[in-house]
């Protein structure tokens, strides 16, 4: 039959084999050829090929990402991380595989040679080179693991359950080790800083954001500090410092015991806060009032003294008047207010009825409130606080009317605080919110003031009674422009506050179990996302819009003071009107949506959102009723459209009015949701929408020349809103283009797209009426919106963390480390739950129970 002969052979450390008799050792080793092949394959070649295929897959995925985003790369570090690293890795592996194939052939030849001739051949150089290549590969993998060459910027979210120890004495930091994490804890619940995070360093390339409400560490694709500096610019550090000082001061920090206090008690509390703010923060700093207002659930007393009275004197007063009135105002020797609105007229300033008649014999103005409707009304800080008022009145000289001018009138004695002769002043009474704001009324009966108390930087009255008209009458609205800019900034701040509460609580609150029996955070539900995420896009858009408006306002004032150039006044006035109207509406309704997203807890004062909402609500009405402001912007758009048709120069904000008919002939061409991740496509679509409504308004006006009815007002209203949305989107896009940080730019791009898509979804009629969209494309827009939700969801906490509100500023139990315990604690502190009140209540409830039975 067959004789099976076993020939012993030796396998050395290099994988080289040769017959055993050539070594004169290991004669007892007996291996079949098949066993040798299996050994070599499993222990040597298979791991090499598996590792090679694994890295090849990684390289393929990274190259796909590069090709997908190649046009977005501006950061050289990211190009290095995403392209150079895979290239080096690929080259190393190719060298290794080629060498291994070469060695395999050499080993086969050696084996045949050894079987017949009994000697050995070893490839030392090739083997050493293979080892060095493997070391290089291992080093590269280690560097990538450390995050030096992060090829993958995936956003992840992890949860770490930390068991906290007993309360700490004297707020001293205590080190706590949990698994592989090392933290510093203070006050038993707040994470101060992360010393190390997973010794494996798998996630070092990400930024860690604290979420104290559930001790979760959330991964964010950008640095919230860098985003915060983009939002606040040069005021970033001052914004954080102001909050820290307020939170540490026992008088200024928010106290849950203040909830439910009577109006007179609250007024006393906030008078003390105003005094401490001025002492601690130099409240006369123009930026400070705007920063501190958002820190309290009620409005700080004398805020209008800083934001309206003093700026009016600075803008409209002569140098001599500024020198006389501003220093005592900043030192609170006098407290002022801005008395423009009357019972009968608010937005219609030109129809004010208060009169100021010049008496050239005494060189005085005589001010009167001739009718009930001429009573100054809603004047903030006037009811209880102000000693002086900047007052608007119709000027008459020798019986001739010279329009509305601005005067400084003393209303109370600076020592006794009693009203002066001819002055009738008081508070208008309880309101919807604004409990600490002493909105007042003022009537004047033959009140005489010196000629020098008419603000005369631009319009002047000589001693002889000669009136010198201002070059641009709108300069009288300079203070109003400043105030409207502050209101626009407040739309961003108030919405940001509400979102910080809503988003953080939505990550903590868990409702309804999944298939594994685990309750899910409510932010996982699309209905909750639809309430909150579009509002985050609105908030960022309004924030960047405000920054741009501040730049234009600064440029306008610079031109006026340095060059007497009023060319920007009309454009700025129209922009402020429409942005104030649209932004305040968005924030007002957005805050209510946030309150609803919190469920029943959102209706509590201790949720924090209620006070934000009630304090913000008047913004839709004061300093210009929104509908009236939109009509003013509508008139501006009509004038700009006429100029464009005549090929005259117009402001860049309305450049879309050139060649408007050619513009309106365009249509949307996108066919996939992915295309709508490009902001430029959405910008063009919103540009068409704005042009369509302005053109429609123009055509209606031409059809009914001279007629001014409700329909004409509605056309102006809608055209102004469409213009505002387009300008805001374009400003958002211009901002993100300038951002250098790729991660921040990527997130802002998604937010910008979401802002535009949400506007289209909310106002689709114009897009269909103009023929720019069809039903299928609207469905694509809805799908794109949902896709952006998935892209933004991991970054939501990072986006609200960028607003940089501390816990004292949010004043919400819902963002506490233990919100349910905090809510119960706040309830127990309510004034109706104290023992004294309960004793009084028992007698009343006993009477109710003892009522005669029917």
From TrEMBL:
In this chain the Acyl-CoA oxidase C-terminal domain maps to 679-843
Signal peptide residues are: none
Gene source species: Paramecium tetraurelia
Domain named Acyl-CoA oxidase/dehydrogenase middle is located at 337-447
Any idea of its EC number?
1.3.3.6
Name assigned to this protein: acyl-CoA oxidase
Query: Where does this protein reside within or beyond the cell?
Result: Peroxisome
Tell me which stretches of the chain form a coiled coil. 827-854
Q: What is its main location?
A: other
Catalytic activities: a 2,3-saturated acyl-CoA + O2 = a (2E)-enoyl-CoA + H2O2
Q: Which GO terms describe its biological process?
A: fatty acid beta-oxidation using acyl-CoA oxidase
Q: Where are the transmembrane segments?
A: 44-67, 79-101, 121-143
Domain named Acyl-coenzyme A oxidase N-terminal: residues:
225-335
**What's in the GO CC field?**
peroxisome
Q: Which InterPro entries match?
A: ACOX_C_alpha1, Acyl-CoA_ox_N, Acyl-CoA_Oxase/DH_mid-dom, Acyl-CoA_Oxase/DH_mid-dom_sf, Acyl-CoA_oxidase, Acyl-CoA_oxidase_C, AcylCo_DH-like_C, AcylCoA_DH/ox_N_sf
All residue ranges annotated as the Acyl-CoA oxidase C-alpha1 domain in the record: 477-638
The cofactors named for this UniProt entry are: FAD
């Amino acid at each position: 039959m067959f004789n099976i002969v076993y020939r012993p052979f030796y396998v050395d450390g290099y994988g080289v084999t040769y017959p055993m008799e050539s070594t004169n050792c290991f004669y007892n080793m007996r291996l079949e050829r098949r066993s040798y092949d299996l050994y070599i394959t499993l222990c040597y070649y298979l791991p090499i090929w598996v590792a090679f295929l694994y890295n090849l897959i990684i390289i393929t995925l990274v190259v796909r990402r590069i090709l997908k985003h190649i046009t977005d790369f501006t950061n050289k570090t990211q190009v290095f991380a995403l392209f150079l690293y895979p290239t080096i890795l690929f080259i190393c592996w190719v060298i290794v595989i080629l060498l291994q194939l070469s060695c395999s052939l050499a080993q086969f030849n050696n084996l045949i040679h050894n079987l017949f001739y009994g000697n050995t051949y070893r490839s030392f150089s090739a083997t050493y080179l293979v080892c060095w290549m493997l070391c290089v590969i291992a080093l590269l993998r280690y560097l990538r693991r450390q995050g030096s060459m992060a090829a993958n910027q995936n956003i992840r979210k992890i949860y770490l359950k930390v068991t906290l120890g007993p309360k700490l004495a004297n707020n001293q930091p205590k080190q706590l080790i949990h698994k592989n994490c090392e933290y510093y804890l203070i006050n038993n619940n707040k994470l101060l800083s992360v010393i190390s995070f997973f010794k494996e360093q798998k996630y070092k390339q990400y930024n860690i954001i604290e979420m104290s409400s559930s001790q979760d560490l959330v991964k964010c694709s950008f640095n919230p500090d860098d985003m915060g500096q983009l939002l606040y610019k040069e005021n970033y550090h001052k914004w954080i410092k102001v909050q820290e000082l307020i939170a540490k001061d026992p008088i200024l920090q928010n106290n849950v015991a203040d909830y439910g206090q009577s109006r007179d008690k609250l007024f006393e509390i906030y008078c003390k806060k105003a005094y401490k703010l001025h002492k601690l923060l130099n409240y006369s700093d123009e930026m400070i009032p705007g920063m501190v207002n958002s820190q309290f659930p009620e409005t700080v007393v004398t805020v209008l003294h800083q934001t309206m009275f003093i700026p009016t004197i600075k803008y409209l007063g002569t140098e001599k008047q500024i020198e006389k009135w501003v220093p005592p105002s900043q030192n609170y020797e006098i407290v002022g207010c801005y008395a423009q609105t009357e019972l009968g007229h608010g937005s219609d300033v030109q129809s004010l009825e208060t009169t100021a008649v010049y008496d050239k014999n005494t060189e005085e103005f005589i001010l009167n409130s001739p009718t009930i409707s001429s009573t100054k009304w809603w004047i903030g800080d006037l009811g209880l606080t102000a000693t002086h008022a900047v007052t608007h009145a119709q000027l008459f000289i020798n019986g001739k009317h010279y329009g509305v001018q601005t005067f400084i009138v003393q209303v109370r004695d600076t020592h006794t605080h009693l009203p002066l002769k001819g002055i009738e002043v008081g508070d208008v009474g309880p309101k919807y919110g604004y409990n600490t704001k002493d909105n007042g009324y003022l009537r004047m009966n033959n009140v005489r003031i010196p000629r020098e108390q008419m603000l005369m930087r631009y319009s002047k009255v000589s001693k002889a009674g000669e009136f010198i008209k201002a070059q641009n009458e709108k300069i009288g609205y300079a203070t109003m422009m400043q105030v409207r800019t502050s209101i626009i900034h407040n739309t961003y701040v108030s919405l940001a506050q509400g979102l910080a509460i809503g988003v953080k609580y939505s990550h903590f609150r868990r409702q309804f179990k999944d298939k594994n029996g685990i309750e899910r955070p409510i932010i996982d539900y699309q209905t909750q996302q639809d309430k909150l995420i579009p509002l985050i896009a609105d908030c960022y858009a309004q924030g960047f819009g405000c920054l741009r408006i501040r730049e234009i306002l600064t440029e306008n004032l610079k031109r006026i003071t340095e060059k007497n150039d009023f060319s920007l006044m009309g454009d700025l006035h129209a922009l402020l009107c429409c942005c104030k109207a649209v932004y305040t509406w968005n924030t007002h309704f957005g805050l209510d949506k946030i309150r609803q997203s919190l469920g029943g807890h959102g209706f509590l004062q201790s949720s924090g959102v209620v006070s934000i909402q009630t304090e913000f609500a008047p913004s839709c009405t004061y300093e210009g009723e929104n509908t009236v402001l939109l009509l003013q912007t509508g008139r501006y758009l009509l004038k700009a459209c006429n100029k464009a048709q005549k090929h005259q120069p117009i402001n860049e904000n309305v450049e879309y009015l050139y060649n408007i008919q050619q513009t309106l002939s365009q249509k949307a061409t996108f066919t996939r949701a992915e295309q709508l991740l490009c902001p430029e496509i959405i910008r063009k679509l919103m540009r068409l929408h704005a042009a369509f409504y302005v053109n429609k308004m123009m055509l209606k006006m031409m059809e009914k020349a001279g007629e001014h009815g409700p329909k004409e007002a509605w056309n102006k209203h809608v055209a102004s809103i469409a213009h505002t949305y387009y300008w805001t989107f374009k400003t958002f896009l211009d901002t993100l283009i300038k951002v250098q940080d790729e991660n921040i730019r990527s997130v802002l791009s998604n937010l910008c797209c979401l802002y535009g898509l949400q506007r289209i979804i909310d106002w689709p009629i114009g897009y269909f009426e103009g023929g720019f969209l069809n039903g299928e494309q609207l469905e694509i827009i809805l799908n794109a919106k949902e896709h952006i939700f998935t892209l933004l969801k991991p970054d939501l906490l990072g986006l609200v963390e960028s607003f940089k509100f501390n816990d004292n500023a949010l004043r919400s139990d819902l963002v506490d480390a233990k919100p349910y315990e905090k809510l119960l604690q706040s309830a127990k502190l309510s004034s109706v739950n104290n023992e004294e009140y309960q004793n009084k209540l028992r007698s009343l409830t006993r009477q109710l129970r003892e009522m005669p039975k029917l």
